[in-house]
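Tutorial, part two.
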Amino acid sequence: MKAAELRELGVDDLGARERDLIDQLFRMRIQKSMGQLEAPDKMCTVRRDLARVKTVIRQKRTT
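Running the prediction step on this input gives:
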């Protein structure tokens, strides 16, 4: 997801998206430890999306 798309969302929606990405990353880590993760490159994408969401939340709270 692009940062421009995230900036259109409200803080509550971004918070929900953040919790969802954290949960998704947690589940992927468990799958990786068990050797069941089918797409390891997806972890990188999820981490970057999470960072984007956190950045936009921080920007919205300071302005």
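The chain has three helices and no strands. In part three we will examine how such features are distributed along the chain.
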